[in-house]
């Protein structure tokens, strides 16, 4: 198989897996609290990452990396997975899956905006316009099609969803200065965050027996969303001859996700969700469009 074909295969596999996650979150949260889902999913994610490192014969590199980078691993692990997924799962517990997953797609734009104060990057007029379009979509979804009324369907849920995008974007911006190998770094994050999650569950009284359905859901979430799929995506980005081609595959995920939400959860897809998601994806595409192409289009008009 050619290198680019392998990249597409890995990339599409990752996108397909991520498309199931919103549904898996909601099903799992029927049997687990957000903290319990984080705890059990983290265990399965850590096991999947250790399995991958074992298959790659790199388990021996884990202990030296831990000794060298334990402070960074603890700090980043406290952000992701601990705080990030705790907040994301809370958003899914409060919102319909279709709304939570659509709002979550604004993280890419959030990262661009956050890069201005964190990395000192300049904000282009194109980025500002994309922000207006994207957050117009957020407002459409959050108010269920009545943005000018400003009556939010579930303000805490929307707040948690948007806060999760801020944490996720901040985490990846911090990763730009991360010296660790990505898979080993992610494994260390999960390893050192697990005691934090365990302590949180103990303090909140959530260390008790749970239904097997919850464990099964957590296993699926942990292995796909948090573990194996990350490695698939990383492999696709390493193999591809064009990063943009692989990155654009992610735009397939939201519509596939909505189809599964409707099919498996029975949620009627609201017109406001489709309209808002269209604005969010349109804003992200606008942000990706080269500035010179925008100028050419404007001059032709």
Automatic annotation (TrEMBL):
Name this polypeptide is given: DMT family transporter
InterPro entries, A to Z? AA-Vitamin_Transporters (IPR050638), EamA_dom (IPR000620), EmrE-like (IPR037185)
The primary site where this protein sits is membrane
Ranges where the EamA domain occurs: 6-142, 156-286
Membrane-crossing ranges are 34-53, 74-95, 101-119, 128-149, 155-174, 186-205, 211-234, 246-263, 269-286
Q: Which UniProt keywords apply?
A: Cell membrane, Membrane, Transmembrane, Transmembrane helix
Topology of this chain in the membrane: Multi-pass membrane protein
**A Pfam family matched by this chain, by name?**
EamA
Species in which this protein is naturally found: Vogesella facilis
Localization recorded for this chain is: Cell membrane
Keyword flag Glycoprotein: no
